[in-house]
């Protein structure tokens, strides 16, 4: 409890300062200035540097320095994720930089124990940013739809959509994509197990990073699964070997793992259309300058901080 109070004294004021001023400037100018990002990054690095230099940093300094390696890994992963989201046009350059800034300013001990992954603790921050923003955008779009709803036009467009879907939809390709993502999650699980055995660590202990990768690279991975039949055959052979291995230690445990993998696969297949639509709505609202994304990022930080 004492460390959290100290965190609030040291880090929360600068977070609120940067959050408020970037939200205001994003609302007025649709721009997040680099100087505020630099202020946050320099402040964060200076805090860690001072606790490292001072001979008596107390329990807080000891805890910060003890988790410094995890903080560095989390910051590095956050930079990669921020870049990927920017590269695939899911948020702007300023949003990516601001996310990195917040990831640097939130100490590891401040993240909730409900979800915690030392190697990408900021996944909780990312979720706290996108979930409220997504709910708002979907609600706003639903209200917009209801206000302009015309039953006749709706039925005509629905029939047109169904006809186009029946023409374009390919069950064989969809099956390849589904099986491909199933194997993707299977291999990620096997890789985590091997890394845990090799390094004797809890690296990538959950499916958060593979799930995030699958959502970001859904289209690219889908094309690979659709067109590369050799990959599917090779992966299927590995899957058969895994089945044989699964039966060797426990059929019940194996069944639970397969159900988990199927759940992840179906989640991605369902979530990606929603995720892509949310991105489109975000882009549309950003162009219209209705809701600056910096506001949602500040809200996400506060949810992460006080959860």
From TrEMBL:
Pfam families reported in the protein's UniProt record: Peptidase_A24
Gene Ontology cellular component annotations, sorted alphabetically: membrane
Domain of life, source organism: Bacteria
Transmembrane segments: 6-24, 36-54, 60-86, 98-116, 122-146, 167-187, 199-218, 230-249, 261-278, 290-306
GO molecular function: aspartic-type endopeptidase activity
Key words of the record: Membrane, Transmembrane, Transmembrane helix
Keyword Membrane: yes
Domain Prepilin type IV endopeptidase peptidase, first and last residues per copy: 15-125
Official protein name in the record: Prepilin type IV endopeptidase peptidase domain-containing protein
Organism: Candidatus Sherwoodlollariibacterium unditelluris
């Amino acid at each position: 409890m004492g460390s959290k109070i100290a965190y609030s004294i040291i880090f929360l004021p600068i977070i609120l300062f940067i959050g408020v001023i970037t939200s205001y400037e994003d609302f007025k100018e649709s721009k997040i200035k680099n100087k505020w990002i630099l202020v946050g990054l320099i402040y964060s690095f200076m805090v860690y540097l001072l606790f490292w230099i001072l001979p008596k940093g107390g329990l807080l300094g000891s805890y910060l320095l003890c988790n410094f390696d995890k903080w560095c890994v989390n910051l590095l992963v956050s930079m990669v994720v921020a870049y990927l989201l920017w590269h695939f046009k899911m948020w702007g350059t300023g949003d990516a930089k601001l996310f990195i800034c917040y990831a640097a300013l939130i100490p590891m001990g401040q993240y909730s124990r409900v979800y915690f992954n030392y190697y990408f603790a900021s996944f909780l921050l990312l979720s706290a940013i996108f979930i409220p923003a997504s709910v708002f955008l979907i609600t706003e779009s639903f209200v917009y739809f209801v206000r302009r709803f015309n039953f006749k036009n709706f039925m005509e467009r629905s029939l047109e959509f169904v006809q186009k879907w029946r023409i374009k939809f390919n069950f064989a390709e969809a099956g390849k994509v589904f099986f491909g993502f199933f194997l993707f999650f299977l291999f990620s699980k096997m890789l985590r197990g091997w890394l845990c055995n090799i390094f004797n660590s809890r690296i990538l202990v959950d499916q958060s990073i593979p799930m995030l990768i699958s959502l970001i690279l859904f289209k690219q991975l889908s094309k690979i699964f659709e067109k590369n039949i050799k990959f599917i055959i090779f992966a299927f052979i590995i899957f058969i070997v895994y089945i044989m291995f699964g039966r060797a230690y426990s059929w019940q445990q194996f069944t639970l793992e397969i159900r988990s993998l199927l759940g992840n696969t179906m989640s991605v297949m369902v979530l990606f259309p929603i995720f892509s639509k949310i991105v489109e709505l975000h882009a549309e609202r950003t162009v219209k300058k209705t809701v600056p994304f910096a506001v949602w990022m500040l809200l996400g930080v506060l949810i992460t901080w006080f959860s």
